[in-house]
TrEMBL record, chains A, B:
SUPFAM superfamilies: NagB/RpiA/CoA transferase-like. Coiled coil: none annotated. Pfam families: Mal_decarbox_Al. The gene is mdcA. This is Malonate decarboxylase subunit alpha. InterPro entries: MadA, NagB/RpiA_transferase-like.
C-alpha cells in the first residue's frame, strides 16, 4: 500500500524546524541563514526567485551563506540567473544542478562553469515551459520568493512586479513544499492580496528593498536612422498589410522605434485603431506616446518597469491594475497571451542562418532566450481566426485541401544586416551549434527555428518567407535582404530579382518608402525627457537614464 | 489626452448599483436577478463560469431570468456551454455573441442555433487559448463564478474543483471588471483561500450546491477485449518503446484500459518506474490501481472528479492539495503542463482522414474539443530534451542538419477501426469540413491537424507516421491500420507490407503480442466496485455508477 504522507510529513517537519527561528511566520533578516538551514535538505529542488526583473536578493545572499556541509547538491529551478549569488552556490557545492530560462548578465559565467563541470545543466527553457514543469517533474520543495509587503499572516503584496510569484507559489505550496517570502516591510494590512497567506510559510523582513532591473527602457536618443527605416518598413509592409492588432514586441531598439513611430508615421498612414491596439508587453516607456495619442486599447504585462508605477496608476483603462491602483503583472498569463492570443511576435536576434534559424547565443555565452521561443512559435493548438492570422495562413499554404487551411502566427525578425561592432547578422552557420558541441548540450540553443519565422526585415527590405515555395527560394529570399554581409553578397541576383518581382522580397521603394525620409524627426519622442513630458511628468526614469 | 478612468469609474458605478441589493458583499439567492440587472450593461463581455465540470448554475438561472429589455446583446466568453440556460440566453436576446471551448451535451443545440442565426459565433477555442484571450481581446466586464464557500470579505474556497476560476477572476478583477461568486455556504473562515476576497465584489449564497458532472469516470465493466488489445499494443509499442514518463491521457475507454493494465501487463513487462510516472490528468478513478501499486509519482489536475475527494485527501504525496487537505486543481496550469511538460498526449477521436487529420465533430454537432488541440500539438517553443522527445524527433527528421535536430511531442490516436454502431473511424473526408461549409465557419473544426499526429493505434496495429517519408507513405500507413473500413480496404497491399517490413506499421505479432491474451482478466479492476476496493473504500462513486 505504500506510504502516502511522507512528503506532507516532511513538509510539516521542515516548517516546525523553521519556526524555531521565527516569531509566528515572521523571521528577522539576521536569521535567514538559520531559517534556510532548518528548512532545506540536501538534494532539494529549490526555486530561488530570480525573475526576469524582480530578485529575491536577500534570500539569495542567505542561501549562498549556508554551510555546504549541511546544505548541498540542491537542484535550482528558476527563471532567471541574474545575481552573482545565483552562481556562487554552484561554486561552493550548495547547488549542483540547474534548470533555468534566462540569464542576462551571467551568461558568460554560466558557459564557463558548464564547461568546467561545476554546473550540471538540465535545460535552458522558455519561461512558460519551465513553469509547466513546476507542475510535472520540476516541482520545487522550497520556494524563496520576493514581495513588497506582507502582513503577519503572510498575505503578500507583490507590488507591480508580480511576475512569476503566483506560479512558483502555487506549484510549491500545493505540493508539500515550503514557501519563504522576503518583503520590504511587514504591515498591518497589505494594499491588496497577491498571494493568500495560507500559501506562505515564512516572511523575512529584508535588510533592504528587493533588487529590480529596468530591462525594458530604451532611450530614444540612441535610435538610428537605419532603425527608423526598418521600423517604417515594418509598419507599412507588415502591421498595415496584415492588420495586426494583437501583438508582442521584443525589447530591442527596432521595436521601440516602431512604438515611437505609431503616433507620427502611423498616424500619417491613417492606421490609428487599425493596428497595434492590444498588447502583451511590459510597460515600455517608449509606448507612452502611442498610449497618450489614443493608439493603445489595453496592455497585459509580464512584469513591470522601473519608473512606470505612477504612470500606470493613472492609466487604469489601459493596464491591468488592482483595486489598490498598482499594476498586476503575471508572467505565466502574459506568456500564454503571447502564445495564443497574439497574431504577431516581432523581435530582434544576433544571428540568422541561411534557412532562417536564429539565435542570440554567441560562442562564449549561454544566456537563454526567456519568452522568445514561446511567443515566437506558431501555436498549432490555436483554433480562432483573425484577419492577420488567416492571411498569413493562406500565404503559407503551398499544398493541401483549402478546406483544411488554418492560419499562421506572424513571427518577424527585425535586424540590421550588421550588428554591434559591424558583426554580420547573417551567417552560414549559427555560433550556437559550435557552443552546443563544445559544452555537450543535448539540444542546440536555437532561439526561433526556421519553420516558425515568417518575415525578416532589414534596412535592405522585407523577405516574406511564407511565400517561398522551397528551400532554395527561402535561402535566396534571406540572402536577398542580407545586404553587404557575406551571405548577402552570395546571392543569386537573378533569383533574387525574380523573388522581388513576385513580392517575396520588397525593397523600401516597393513599399513607397523613401529612405531619406527615415529621419529622427519622425520619432514621437527623441529622448527620455520627451517621454517624461509625454507622460505629463508621471514617468519617473531611473537616475541612469536622466541626463538633465 | 483622452479619458483614462472611464472603465474604472464605470466599474465603481456598477458595484455601487449592486450594493443596493447586498448586505456588504453578501447577496441572497432571491436577489440574484436584481443584482445582475444592476451590474450588467448591454453589450458586456460576460464569463458565466461553465467549466468542463463545475457550473455556476444559480447565476446561470439568474442571468436567464433577467429582463432582455434591460440586459441584452451580451458577448459570452466561457469555457463550457453545458447547461440549457447557457443557450437559453441566446434565444431571449440577453446574449448575442459566443466564444467558447467545449460543449458536451449542448453541441447539437449550438449547431442548430448557429444555423438559425441565433448565435453569432466568435470561435471554438482550446481552453488555454480562450484563457489567453481573456488577457488580450476578450477580457470580461463581468465574471459570474462558483465556489464551495466564502467568508463575508469574499475570500473564496473553491473546493477541489478550482478549475478555471483563478484565471477568470484574475482577468476580470484586475481589468476593471466586476466579479460575482455563487457559493454553497457563507462561513466565518474558509478552509483555504483559493481567491483573495479583494478580487470578489459580490457573494451569492446559492439555493443549492453548484452542479458538477462526473465526466472522467469510466466503468471497467464496459471495457472490451478489443480495447484491451489496443491498450497492450500502446503500452508495449509506444510507452515502453519511447520510455514515456510524463503524459496526458484522454478521457476515453482506451486510455482508461491502459491505466488498468499498468499494474498487471505493465508489471509483467517490468515497466514500473520506467513509464507513466508523472501526469497532467484529472483524478481518474481508473488510475487508482496504478497509484496503489506504486506506479504513479505525481498527478497535477485540471479539475477534480466526483467521488474522488476522500481518496485524494488521503494521498497528498500524489496530488496537489492545500493545507486544508483537499485537491487544488487549476485548468490553466494543467493545460500548460500538458502542452510543455508532457512527452505524450494520447486520446481518441471519432474520425481520421487519409492524412491523419482528426475530429470528434459530426455533421450535426459543434461540441468543441476542450484541451485536445492544445495538448495534442507539438509545441515549437519547447527547449528541454527528454529521451522520448529526442527519439521521436530523430525519427521525424527526414532532411536537414542533424545539429539542428529538435525533439517531437508524441501525439497518439487510439481508436477502434469501427466506432459506436459500427460507424467507420477512418474516412476519406472529415464530416467537420461539411459542417464548416454548411454553417459558414471561417475555420473547419479540426481537433488535431495531421502534422501533429505521430502514431495511430487500432486493433490492427500501430502506424508510426514519424517514419513516413512522404504523403503517399503516410496515406498507406493509415490505410494499413484501418482494418475493414473502406479506407482500410483501399490499401495498396504491397506498399503496406513494405511499410511493415520497415517497422512503420507494426502488427500485434510484430510486437510479440498474442491477441488471444487480450482478456478482461488482465484488468486490474473489472468494475467500479473493484476500484472502490482498491481505494480502501476511499473512492465514493456517484450513485449512477453503483449497482451493488
Amino acid at each position: 500500500m505504500g506510504e502516502w504522507r511522507g512528503e506532507r510529513q516532511a513538509r510539516d517537519a521542515r516548517i516546525a524546524a523553521g519556526r524555531a527561528h521565527a516569531d509566528g511566520k515572521i523571521v528577522p533578516a539576521a536569521a535567514v541563514v538559520d531559517l534556510l538551514e532548518a528548512i532545506l535538505r540536501p538534494g532539494d529542488r529549490v526555486c530561488l526567485e530570480g525573475d526576469n526583473q524582480k530578485q529575491a536578493d536577500c534570500l539569495a545572499r542567505g542561501l549562498s551563506a549556508c554551510d555546504p556541509e549541511k546544505i548541498h547538491d540542491l537542484h535550482m529551478v528558476q527563471s532567471g540567473i541574474v545575481l552573482p549569488e545565483h552562481l556562487d552556490v554552484f561554486e561552493t557545492g550548495i547547488a549542483k544542478r540547474l534548470d533555468y530560462s534566462y540569464s542576462g548578465p551571467q551568461g558568460a559565467r554560466i558557459a564557463k562553469m558548464l564547461y568546467g563541470g561545476q554546473i550540471e545543466l538540465g535545460a535552458v527553457h522558455t519561461y512558460l515551459e519551465l513553469f509547466a514543469r513546476y507542475f510535472v517533474d520540476l516541482t520545487p520543495n522550497v520556494a524563496l520568493i520576493a514581495g513588497v509587503s506582507a502582513d503577519r499572516d503572510g498575505n503578500l503584496y507583490t507590488g507591480p512586479n508580480t511576475e512569476d510569484t503566483p506560479t512558483v507559489v502555487e506549484a510549491t505550496a500545493f505540493k508539500n513544499g515550503v514557501v519563504v517570502a522576503q518583503v520590504n516591510e511587514i504591515v498591518d494590512t497589505v494594499p491588496r492580496v497577491d498571494i493568500p497567506g495560507d500559501r506562505i510559510d515564512f516572511v523575512v523582513e529584508a535588510d533592504k528593498p528587493f533588487y529590480v532591473e529596468p530591462l525594458f527602457t530604451r532611450d530614444p536618443a540612441a535610435m538610428t536612422e537605419t532603425q527608423i527605416l526598418i521600423a517604417m518598413m515594418a509598419i507599412k509592409g507588415i502591421y498595415a498589410e496584415y492588420g495586426i492588432k494583437r501583438l508582442n514586441h521584443g525589447i530591442g531598439f527596432g521595436t521601440a522605434a516602431i512604438e515611437l513611430l505609431l503616433p507620427t508615421y502611423g498616424e500619417k498612414l491613417g492606421l490609428k485603431g487599425q493596428i497595434a491596439t492590444h498588447w502583451a508587453l511590459n510597460p515600455h516607456p517608449t509606448l507612452i506616446p502611442a498610449i497618450e495619442s489614443g493608439w493603445v486599447k489595453q496592455v497585459h504585462c509580464f512584469g513591470s518597469e522601473v519608473g512606470m508605477d505612477r504612470y500606470i496608476r493613472e492609466r487604469p483603462d489601459i493596464f491591468f491594475t488592482g483595486a489598490d491602483g498598482s499594476l498586476r503583472s503575471n508572467r505565466a498569463f502574459c506568456q500564454t497571451a503571447g502564445l495564443y492570443a497574439c497574431d504577431m511576435f516581432i523581435g530582434a536576434t544576433l544571428q540568422i542562418d541561411l534557412m532562417g534559424h536564429s539565435s542570440t547565443i554567441t560562442q562564449s555565452r549561454v544566456a537563454g532566450f526567456g519568452g522568445a521561443p514561446n511567443m515566437g512559435s506558431d501555436p498549432h493548438g490555436r483554433r480562432h481566426h483573425s484577419h492577420a492570422w488567416m492571411k498569413a495562413g493562406r500565404e503559407g499554404q503551398i499544398v493541401g485541401d483549402p478546406a483544411l487551411m488554418r492560419g499562421r502566427k506572424l513571427v518577424v525578425q527585425l535586424v540590421e544586416t550588421f550588428g554591434d561592432k559591424l558583426v554580420p547578422t547573417f551567417v552560414e552557420k549559427l555560433d550556437a551549434l559550435e557552443l552546443a558541441r563544445k559544452i555537450g548540450l543535448e539540444l542546440a540553443p536555437v532561439m526561433i527555428y526556421a519553420d516558425d519565422v515568417t518575415h525578416i526585415v532589414t534596412e535592405e527590405g522585407i523577405a516574406n518567407l511564407l511565400l517561398c515555395r522551397d528551400a532554395d527560394e527561402r535561402e535566396q529570399a534571406i540572402r536577398g535582404v542580407a545586404g553587404y554581409t557575406a551571405v548577402g553578397r552570395g546571392r543569386d541576383r537573378a533569383k533574387v530579382e525574380a523573388l522581388r518581382a513576385r513580392g517575396v522580397i520588397r525593397r523600401p521603394e516597393d513599399l513607397g518608402i523613401e529612405p531619406l525620409d527615415a529621419d529622427r524627426a519622425l520619432l514621437a519622442a527623441k529622448s527620455i525627457k520627451d517621454l517624461v513630458h509625454w507622460s505629463g511628468g508621471l514617468y519617473e526614469p531611473p537616475a541612469r537614464f536622466r541626463n538633465w
